[in-house]
Amino acid sequence: MNLFNLRTLLGLTTTEAGQLLHVTRRTWELWESGKQKIPPAKEELLLKKIDLYHDNSSNDVVVIIQKTGLSEIPLDVVGSRNFLACDTIGNDEYIVKSLAIDKQSLRPYVHKTRFLGTYNQTALKHFSNWKSQLSD
After folding, report:
1. pTM (two decimals)
2. Can you name one GO molecular function term for this protein (predicted)?
C-alpha cells in the first residue's frame, strides 16, 4: 500500500496521519518512505479507520486487496477523487488507474495496480459507479 498516496488522498499531513494511528510524525514518515515496514496491527488499524472515514465522508475510498493463504494484503487505496479507469485484462484480472503524486518530484502521474476481481467485488462496484460519473 502506498502510504504517501493514501495520506494525500485523505488530505492529511504526516503529523495528522501519525495521530490517526497513535504514532509520531517521524514514525509515519519512516513507514511512508519505506525505510521501516508498517507493523501488521497498525496496518489493520489504518484499514479500519479508512472504512470509518469512508462511512462518514463524501469522498469514496476503497482498498484493493490480495489474498495469500489466510491473510489479506492491501495492494492499493483508490478514491473517487483520483480514480481514472478500471480495465479488464484477463480471467478475473483487472488494472485500475488512478492519479498519484511522485514523492520526489511532486509531479502527478498515472498509478496502475493489477488485482483479482474475486477478492475486490466492492471495489469493482465503486469503480463502475465512478466511471459512470466521469462520463456524465
Report:
1. 0.65
2. DNA binding
